[in-house]
Amino acid sequence: MAEFLVAFVVERLGELLIQESSFLHGASGQLGRMQAELNRMKCFLQDADSRKEGDKRVRNWITEVREAAYDAEDVIETFVLKAASRRRSGGLEGVIKRNIGEIGEGTSAANELQRQLRESYPHDVEEHVVGLEKDVEALVAELIKEEERIRVISIVGMGGLVMESAIMKQVGAPNIELMKSLDVYELMGELYNFLEEKRYLVVFDDMWSTYEWDILKPAFPSGNIGSKIMFTTRNEEVAWLADSQSHPHRLRCLTVEESWELFCKKAFPENDDFAKLGRVMVGKCAGLPLSVNVLGGLLATKKTVNEWEMVHRKILDGTYDGVSGILALSYNDLPYHLKPCFLHLGIFPEGFEIPKNKLIRMWVAEVQYGLSLEKKELKHIFTHFELLRVLDLEGLFIKDSIPSGIGNLIHLRYLGLRRTLVEYLPSSIGNLRCLQTLDLRDTSITRIPNVIWKMEHLRHLRLGQEICSEHLRMDNLRQIQTLTHIRAGSWVTKCFATMTYLRKLGIIYKSRPEEVGAILKSSIVRSGRLQSLFLEFLCDIPLPSLTPISSCPRLSTLYIQGRIAELPTDHQHPRQDHDYEFIPPNLTKLTLDSSRLEHDPMPTLEKIPYLRTLHLRNQAYFGKEMVCIAKGFPKLEFLELRELNHLEDWRVDKGAMPSLRRLVINNCRSLRMLPDGLKFVTTLQELEITGMSGEFNERLEKGEEAEDWNKVEHIPSITLASVNVF
């Protein structure tokens, strides 16, 4: 962690020396010396930070460096934002001098410590299993037993009982392969296909809830006699739900003597003084093997009674006690650049589902710390947290306006107001020159001050649909990467030429179709750099030709809301290499909303070679019949048909959609029945049907006796009108 901070400060110092040289005056020499000093520290810290438990001096010195690095970074950034504009640098030099002096006092000792640390080397110690031998033998016997059914074997106990590794040593650990990134439905499909017609052993560690088991259960073929599934859990209810005929194995904790035996295999106490302290500390491990191992590994590096006494005192005050001590060890094993990312997770409530993209943007914005703000008054925050980097107020009950004091947070990188009741933003937000992400989605704001152009470092601007943004000046946003729900206007031709990093664009048109043409002919589209494009047209006039979109080879996501020209077919407009009007060659996700197409779009869409997700919503298609032919949609995994009110008949030929995993049909009230060919889509894992006619539902809701049941009986998860069938 400290090494990461020092590296960051070194980089900022370099930027400051180059960019602000005209304002530094006498401080430039001091900054240069500080940069060289911090570079030397970085080399040592990369080694010392990973071994800081081994020596109190290293631990203390790293703490001092961390605090000094925080101070140095704050001073540097404040200087850039304020002092440079005032052409004053006197205060900076004094602060830097004090920090350099404090840090420099430790360099001689650090050099010696560095030499000692580099002479040592890490070594792996074989994992010891003490007191659990009989448990392991019993479980292995269950695993290798020949049985006429699939058996679920569950191990119930607290975290840290270290059983699965011992068992796998007995039955033989398989080779481990890194899998590509898959969502849960993709993973279930891959797993089912791999295990089908095989006898298998699958091991899950730490199954938390019955919900998790319900999700995963369909991934395991049911006809594989002799197969076994084993998992560990702290929840006995999960164990009984997984297999009511198999009694869970309840693991006991180690006895005091077993704990001491395991500890001695790690720490080797040399005499009675060590042993007396050791027994007290082992007693705090509550019989958990993992805690005993952690304690033993820690004390194995302590060579004197004084060092053991120091750890003893910390265990008594809770520093290394229980789960927190185990997490501390896991944290210390992380690479230095991932440690602040790990710490950042602490700002989210327990059990909160963290959005991936949002977390990444917050990581980029905040390399040091975050803050939970649920019960704090905004004015207090703006007054007492002037060095704040991340301010996320999403979902909080905040009405009316944000106080003007927000302009004091000049270091702010991330400001999230999504799903608040905020109606106004003060013009002082223009002071947030370091801001990288501004999220105003789902607020009550309808107009924002024309100060966005001052945020030269802004990368992600997410506006709400109701915000009038036509007047905004944005020609200075040269680093912008995401720009969504922005209203079309005269700014387009002026600004797009400078937005060379723009990758995700979402534009709303209230009228004037010619504005769409201006966007599509702009440099940002012609450059081919766009990856996501959202076009929302709110009037009833058909959109003009969208052909220029086809020149975006990197475009993977396309959302179009509004009437569009008819999709061409092979008969009407013969094409080669899948060049179908506006459809780019590498599209993976397509949404057509309110398109009012009169001819079946499937003959065109099914030829998009990499399409994985397709949404047809809100009268996207006005016709009565739709056909998916054999070999069409070769990569499609998710299909949604929503509010296609005129659709009556849907035909799916055998061999169509060979990769489909999820199908959602919602409010297509004229559709009479599911297509017969759905029974040939063997990859389908989830079917969700809601808001359909009574005639349609009657063909399914009686289960195995229903008329259409043979079309869907192979699907593991079926939801019909909010009732879970499976």
Key words describing this protein structure:
single chain, 726 residues, alpha/beta, Rossmann fold, four-stranded parallel beta sheet, 23 strands, 36% helix, nucleotide-binding
Give the SSE layout.
Elements: H1 2-19, H2 21-24, H3 27-48, H4 56-86, H5 90-104, H6 107-119, H7 133-144, E1 151-156, H8 164-171, H9 184-195, E2 201-204, H10 210-216, E3 228-233, H11 236-242, E4 249-250, H12 256-267, H13 272-283, H14 289-299, H15 305-316, H16 322-333, H17 339-344, H18 356-365, H19 378-384, E5 390-392, E6 399-401, E7 414-416, E8 421-424, E9 437-439, E10 460-462, E11 482-487, H20 491-495, E12 504-509, H21 514-520, H22 523-526, E13 532-537, E14 557-561, E15 589-593, H23 602-605, E16 613-617, E17 625-628, E18 638-642, E19 649-652, E20 662-666, E21 686-690, H24 694-698, H25 709-712, E22 717-720, E23 723-724
Parallel strand pairs: 1-3, 1-4, 2-3, 5-7, 6-8, 7-9, 9-10, 10-11, 11-12, 12-13, 13-14, 14-15, 15-16, 16-18, 17-19, 18-20, 20-21, 21-22
Antiparallel strand pairs: 22-23
Domain NB-ARC: 180-272
Pfam families: LRR_14, NB-ARC, Rx_N
InterPro entries: Apaf_helical, Disease_R_plants, LRR_dom_sf, LRR_R13L4/SHOC2-like, NB-ARC, P-loop_NTPase, RX-like_CC, Rx_N
Strand coverage percent: 5-15%
- How are strands sequenced across the largest beta sheet? 5-7-9-10-11-12-13-14-15-16-18-20-21-22-23
Structural class: alpha/beta
Rg over CA atoms: 31 Å
Query: Which regions have little confidence, pLDDT < 50, spanning 5+ residues?
Result: 18-23, 87-93, 99-126, 173-181, 367-375, 569-580, 722-726
Q: Indicate the overall shape.
A: flat
Largest sheet: 15 strands, mixed
User: What is the name of the CATH architecture of one domain?
Assistant: Alpha-Beta Horseshoe
Total number of helical segments? Answer: 25
- Tally of DSSP β-strands: 23
N- to C-terminal separation?
Answer: 48 Å
CATH class wording of one domain: Alpha Beta
CATH topology name of one domain, in short, is Leucine-rich repeat, LRR (right-handed beta-alpha superhelix)
What's the rounded overall pLDDT mean? 75
Proportion of residues in helical segments: 25-40%
